[in-house]
Structure formats: structure tokens, C-alpha cells
Amino acid sequence: YAVYYTIPDQKTDAYSFAEYCGSLTDDSNIARIFNQKENDFLTKNLLIGVKQAWIGGYYQPVFSKNQTFQGWLWLDQKVLSASVPVIYDNWKSGRPNNDASKPWIAIYGDQGNEGKGNYPGLWKDFSANNQYNFVCEVRCSLGQKDDEELLFDWSGEMRSTDNDDPVTNGM
User: What angle do CA 135, 78, 74 make, to 5 degrees?
Assistant: First the structure.
């Protein structure tokens, strides 16, 4: 299978972009990045003319002693929860800084301020109220989309949280 990425022209806060991405199709989600190859693909092909864009990472703090998840997790619109740990990351130096008011991940595009270390493809934690571009992903078959530049081939690789997907079948 493949993942088709899109970055709408609008900017929004962290809560609204998650809802928007989940509403595109039955197989759409907020963008989740599982390795350097995917991070580089998004940076090179999609984050052109963008300062920063929301991706689907969220910090889940400890609320109770019975809580099973804590830390940086990928949100999944299909199950409406943060359930997949962020294993691969590409944080800007000094980030995340564990500030509870900044629980969302954004990725820098080519318009980030490199003088402040905001290089394309690096991640930073931000508060939800910031208005940024955002990246959505749609799982699809290879060849399903016409714009091959934005189609990332995941054939034979594991990445999503869906039970019929190999990434969770062996976990």
C-alpha cells in the first residue's frame, strides 16, 4: 500500500486539524512519521513555502496510576486516541522541553528560521492554540493517486495502527 499526503492551504489550531484530516476519507488520518525516509519525503515534497506544520504527535501526561500510556504518542483518528508510541523522532536540539503547555508536534518546512535552529524536517513541541499549516495522510493503493510526488510507497513496510495492517499484527 501507499500513503498519499496533502497539506491544505488553510492554517488552524491543533484540535481542528485533527478533525479535518480524519474527515477526508475512511482511510485518512493526521500525518504520522515513522522513519527518517518518510520525514525526508515530507520535507522535500510537501513542506515547500511552509514555516511549520502540525503532524499527529501528542504528549500524553500521567493522569492516574492506572493509565497505560505516557509520553509522546501518535494520534489515530480511526480509534480516536493516542495509542502508538513515537519511536522515531527528529526533534530540534533542546526539544521537547517537557512543558505541559506544549503537547503537540509540528515539523519545520523550508520557511523555518534557520538562524534559530529551525531547519526543515526538525520537530518542535508547541501549544495547541498556534495557527499552523497541517499535514494529512490518506492510506491508498499504489497507483491510486495521480500526483506521484506526494505518494509514499509503504509496500512491505509496517506503519499504521489498523489491526489489518502489519505494524500492529505483531505487536
Answer: 55
Closest by Cα among 78, 80, 85 to 162:
78
d(CA 114, CA 167): 35
For residue 43, list its beta bridge partners. none
DSSP assignment of 13-43: -HHHHHHHHHTS-TTEEE----SHHHHHHHH
User: 3-state SS string over 88-145?
Assistant: CCCECCCCCCCCCCCCEEEEECCCCCHHHCCCCCCEEEECCCCCEEECEEEEECCCCC
This prediction's pTM = 0.83
Q: What is the pLDDT of residues 107-156, one digit of tens each?
A: 999 999 999 999 999 999 999 999 999 999 888 776 655 554 456 665 54
Amino acid at 127: S
Cis, bond preceding 120 (omega within 30 deg of 0): no
For residue 120, which of 106, 104, 103 has the smallest C-alpha distance?
106
What is the signed CA dihedral for 92, 19, 27, 125, rounded to 10 degrees?
A: 10
Residue type, 56: G
Q: Alpha-carbon distance 151 to 57, whole Å?
A: 21
